[in-house]
Each structure stands twice: as C-alpha cells, then as structure tokens.
Amino acid sequence: MRGRQRVASRDYIIGHGKEENSVRLPNAKPWRRSLRHVVVASLSSFLYGYHIGVVNETLESISEDLDFSGNTMAEGLVVSTCLGGAFVGSLFSGWIADGVGRKRSFQLCALPMIIGAGMSATANSLWGMLLGRLFVGTGMGLGPPVAALYVAEVSPPAVRGTFGALTQIATCLGLMGSFFIGIPAKEIVGWWRICFWVSIIPAGVLAICMEISAESPHWLFKRGRTIEAEAEFEKLLGGVNVKSAMADLSKSDRGDESSSVKLSELLCGCHARVMFIGSVLFALQQLSGINAVFYFSSTVFESFGVPSDLANTSVGVCNLLGSIVAMILMDKLGRKVLLMGSFFGMAVAMGLQVLAASSFAAGSGAMYLSVGGMLLFVLSFALGAGPVPCLVMSEMLPGKIRAKAMAICLAAHWVINFFVGLLFLRLLEQIGAQLLYSIFGSFCLIAVAFVKKYILETKGKSLQEIEIALLAQEAS
Fold first, then answer.
1. Region at 216 (left for phi over 0; alpha for psi -120 to 50; beta for the rest)
2. Worst-scoring range by mean pLDDT, 99-108, 332-341, 352-361?
3. Any alpha helices (H) in 358-401, and if so which ranges?
C-alpha cells in the first residue's frame, strides 16, 4: 500500500497516460490551488501582528484602569510578558509540528490565543493582564514557525517567495487592524477590553478553516504516509503535478526520521552551522530595533507633537506597502538581495534618527528627521528583513530537522524581542535616543555583512535542491 501510486482524478489519468512532458501542462497553475491554504495559514500571522500592536494605542488606558500608570517597568512587562510566552511556544513548536502535524499545530496555536484574549479583556489587575498576555504569547510563539514551515512545504517553488511574503502582509494587516481598533481607546473608557475581545474572531476562524485545509505532504511523507501525501499534493497542486512533486520529494529520505533528531545534533553536530546561521539572522532582525518601533511608536511620535493615530496609520501603511513590494520582488530579485538592501536601508534610517536626536537638528527639523527616519525604517524592514528570515530559513533547513530547528532559531528571536520590549523605554530614558539608535543602526550594518557571507540564494529551487546545494557548500 505504501508504495502504490494514487490515481484519484481525471486530470491525473490524462497526464499519466501521455508523454513525460505532459505532466507540466502550460495551463496548469498549481499556485491557485495552494493559495487558499496559505491564506488560511496566514491568519496565524495576522493574529501575531494584532497582538504585537494591540497594546500600542491602548497601553495608556490599560495602565490607568489597572492602576500602574507612570510605571515604565510595568508597562514594559505588559508588552514583554507576551513575548516571554512566545518564547515558550516557539521553543516547543518544532516538537508539536512534527508530532501532530502542521494542521493540528495551527489549531493548538489558536486555542491559547482565544483563552488569553478573554483573560486580558476581563482583567482587573496588572497580574490578570500579565497572565492573559502570557497565554496569548504561547500561541504567538507557536504560530510563526509553523506558518513558515507550512508555506515552504505546500507552495510551488516558483511562487514560494511570493507566498512567504503573504504571511508578512498578514502581519501588517494585523498591526494596522490593532492600531485602527485601538484609536477610540483614549476617548471611550474600557474600549481596550473590546480590542482584546475582537481578536477571538480570527483565532476561531483559523481553528475552524484549518480543519478543511491540506496537511503538509512533506510531513506525511516523513511519517511514511505516502498515499496521503499524494492526496494532499493533488489538493494543493492538481492531479497533473502529483507525479513530479512525489518524484522530487522522494529525493529525500523517507520514514519517521524526525523523532531520531537529538538536540545535541542540532546544537553541536553536523547541523550546527545552519543552526548558527538561523539563530544569528533572527537575533539580528530583532537587534535592529524594529519591534521597539512597533511597540512604542505612539510614545516616540507624541514626544514630537505628532498625533498617535496619524503616526500609527503612517507606520502601518509603510509596513503594508513595503510588504506588497517584497511580495512582487521576492521571486524576481531573490531573498539575499532583498535582505541586504533592507538592512542597509534600516541602517540609513537609524542614522536619520541619530541626527534628529543630535544638537544639529532642532524644532521642526528634528521632527521631520525623526518621523521620516522611522517611516523609512519600517518601509525598509518590510522590504526584506521582515518577510525573508522565516522564509529563507524554512527553505535552508534540511527536511529532517526543519521543524525543530526552526523552533530553536526562533527562540533566539523571542529572547531578543523580550528584552527589547522590556528595556526600550528604560534605555531611552537612561542613555538617550542618540546612543540607543546608534546601537540599532550598527546591528543593521552587521546584518548586511552577515547576510552577504552566510545566506544562500534559494529562489526558484525546490526544497530538495536547496538541501543538496547546502551539503555541497558545507563539503567545500
């Protein structure tokens, strides 16, 4: 049964009965079939963006209602406790994704987000809010690595970059949604509770719609469930593409090998180099300071007299526009070019922030430099440093370790993210904007050099071809 080919559609019978080149029909567009599955998976990224931004407009109202107004450490905890939960969720995401599959992992991701949002919405004290944010964070940590795995494994190679950028666009839409929903928070007492209740809707949709979405054929194949893998490929790519997809997948080893991967192998064994690349790339993404902008843009803009609703709208629009451009260019220019250009643009933007904070700029000049620098920073981030790291690492990591390795690499992301969220306001007070933004800009330049040296270009290649290329690179 395991080795038998599954013939389940008229298209497949026709393609199978003709010559070999008929498998790739000119009118066959497999991306149309897989797109809806990627869109459903992107709801996890929407929720990630929403919960990242939901405290931006509402933090002041929350602190007043729960009696910790003016306590910057408590405000930082409301932001960063969610990130601590995300670290835990991310750390176990690989084992969950390999154990129960990608579909069930998305549903498990939605559950703590629903529970945590309800707890946050009904909180009457700081501790109640922190507990709710901790629950939400575990779902946030589980979602992004599973989404990266799922998109890489269900997307046709020719559009994998474009589909990968869809998750970043979903994150942008989540951020913008949280900004717009949070605008009345300063005018309407208790509105911040509505902002948390609203997030339950997309989480419920994710859990329900994932039930009818495709499972990853790669995961099924690794488990030795070949017939089911063929069925999922037909659902994702169409019957005429099943044979070529299965042939490509067969280049990798079959069987439930994921359970044999030990943590020591990932950290110190033959996979240590690619693990190092992934962990450092995610760490540099956060050390650039991007989430400090998303968490505290209202505070920074208001210091220059810019209304927070206008500031957050501008940040959201720049983030969305950059992500759309990245989606268009991802499979044309490639991942490496976008990453290098993105980090360099972020370094330039931080230079503008440093100049705005210096004695050379004053009054309206400092405001234009700071606001312009922040918007350029967000735009540059969305062009590459936002969407590319998760995508490129899900492509570069070998299939045998992909889920667990992504979990560990993203754990580095959440650790840095936690401390940036916790300490940004305190550091801004103690060392000043000029030095803090100089540090962020320096990390952006380090990231440019790191990407140039270590990141492999993956556009247009199948996951198996990328794995072979990495092995050849390591051997040389």
1. beta
2. 352-361
3. 364-380, 388-396
